[in-house]
Amino acid sequence: MSVLLRGICAAKGVAMGRLYVADRSQLEVTERLVAPHQVEAEVVRLFAGVEAARRQLQAVKQRIPTDTSADIASFIDTHLLMLQDSALTTVPAQIIRERGCNAEWALKVQRDDLVRVFEAMDDGYLRTRKDDVEHVVARIQHALLEEGDGDRMAGEDALAGHVVLARDLSPAELVLLNHQGVVGIITEFGGPTSHSAILARSLRLPSLVGLHQAHAYLKDDDTVIVDGREGVVIIAPDARTIDYYQGLKENIYAHHKRRERLRDKPVVTRDGHAIRLHANIELPEDVVAVRQVNAAGVGLYRTEFLFMNRVTPPDEEEQVEAYASVVLALDGAPVTIRTLDVGADKSCDSVRGGRESVCINPALGLRAVRLCLRETGIFLTQLRAILRAAALGEVRLMVPMVSTVAEVHQVRQLVEMARQSLQQDGLEHAAGIPIGAMVEVPAIALAADLFAPHLDFLSIGTNDLIQYTLAIDRLDDEVNYLYDPLHPAVLRLIDTILQAGAAAGIPVSMCGEMAGNSSYTRLLLGLGLREFSVPPNALLEIKQAINENDVQDVAAIAREFLGVVDGEARRRLLDRLGIDP
Ligand code: PEP
Ligand code: MG
After folding, report:
1. What is the pLDDT of residue 186?
2. Are 399 and 306 in the same domain?
3. Residues with Cβ within 5 Å of ion ligand 2?
4. Last residue of a domain, one of 433, 462, 477
5. Atom nearest to 513 CA in ligand 1
6. Minimal CB count within 10 Å: which of 146, 188, 267, 314?
7. Which residues line ligand 1 (CB under 6 A)?
8. For position 155, what pLDDT does the model report?
9. Nearest ligand to the C-alpha atom of residue 301
């Protein structure tokens, strides 16, 4: 009999395959007493397990395709470093000696201690470290229990065609799974605007998040269908269900193929409004997808991915190489490079190291531009690299999480310092660069008319703007039902920003996920948005929605929509805007 589990859609599409339960922390470990004369042999067994885990990780690292970003390899390096740490070697050995227990149990005791410490700190960065500890400990325990190198994750093809179930996945883990040929993802936690979800969409990996009890219902090798459109997982589907989904997959594929015909068509509404349609990228290699859909440029390059999962930040040369490769691949089209946006859910060892503060609300803390203005050494290196890459094409510099005009002035001063230092060093660089801000904090949205004169462009980051306006943690699936891009407060802010940009004569783009959802295209055109930046795989769908609409038809409806909060009038307007209630 088929069983159906419901979750939250993170990436559309349909995946079918056998299940792989990746959550190593679910491993059953029991305590076994070791006779006094065998205690030292057990310590040796522990170290053999650590060594086996190290060999597995080395094997995984070697199998990573050469075109994978450096981030992924360094994510594995972090785990390799942890395997050398006394916390996971000397301390468990001590526990074996003191308690006379087996190695797996000693690791469990030590892991529980470390996790308790991390959890008490309640800090985003440390929470991620906690997950790393769990992953590494589970890897050693597996090696011990399997008495060898039987690591299913390590094989290059072992996961090909599988759907993976995990408690949660970091963006780096997701990229790795994608390279290993995984076809679908299910996680118990996480929201649809988390960075992992955004990445899953850009990798076209059907994904569901927020299936809290999934581990209780699913086990290794179950046949499952992930329906990323309806947000359901079907366990043990019968033949008719499989046929239905097979047909659906073929339809989706045919639909994509038809859309490809739009690739070289201009982006213009039926009544003649030309629209700029740019793409969002996370990694330099994403430019391949950008070119495939013929985007007019890159409207958001999330540079923080270059800084993640590594011990030290990338130096200037590495950054120049990454940024320049994007600028050159775009061949004269504009590239909007966003400066480092770490902190909150985007933890980054290389930038914050062990200097984390204990903060209750990391999303409201020292993140993005606030962190860059504190860590000016790291920031100046990035600014120098951006200015150097800007000598090769049209580059704009975009600052995330701006909330005061003083931050804009400080960034401008640092850009000028970076420029002067490059001049002194005799390195080629752009003399000037347009500087814009992401509008993600309601404060700047409300006062956009006061900010606009200080900026060369604005870009609306709806993912954070909605989170901060509606007071909803974008990572928390428990409150995800409140995450509403159509909330009148959100729409009024968008309207205010667009009007402020128009009055100041500066372009306003939207690069948050709302821009990439075709349900909202009509409404956004009606509100006056003329520049969209969307994930490459959503671009042709958005182009189609733009090309099929008349601005004059929707402007009045969109304006009316700003004034309704509920009821029949709202339902009527939703219908006229083509949005499913
Ligand atoms: C946003 O907040 O809308 C945005 C584009 O930034 P990120 O998703 O990277 O936080
Ligand atoms: Mg943001």
Report:
1. 95
2. yes
3. 440, 461, 464
4. 433
5. 3
6. 146
7. 300, 302, 341, 440, 461-464, 511-512
8. 47
9. 1
Q: Which long-range contacts (CB under 8 A, 24 or more apart) does 569-576 make?
A: 574/486
Please give the Cα distance from 520 to 506 (Å, whole number). Answer: 23
Q: How far apart (Å, rounded) are the C-alpha atoms in residues 161 and 153?
A: 13
Q: State the catalytic residues.
A: 195, 511
Buried b (16+ CB within 10 A) or exposed e, 275-293: bbbbbbbbbbbbbebbeeb
Distance 15 CA to ligand 1 centre (A): 27
Work out the number of other CB atoms within 10 angstroms of the CB of residue 251.
11
Structure tokens at 281: 């990228």
Please count the structural domains in the chain: 3
244-296 residue pLDDT tens: 999 998 998 898 889 899 999 999 999 999 999 999 998 898 899 999 999 99
Helix, strand, coil percent values for the chain (each to nearest 5): 55, 15, 35
- Whole domain around residue 111: which residue ranges? 36-145
Token look-up 């995946």 returns 15
Q: Does the pLDDT value for residue 347 go beyond 80?
A: no
Q: Write the pLDDT tens digit of every residue in 159-186.
A: 889 999 998 887 767 877 887 889 999 9
Under 8 Å between Cβ of 277 and 267: yes
CA of 16 to the centre of ligand 1 (A): 30
User: Does 161 lie in the same domain as 16?
Assistant: yes
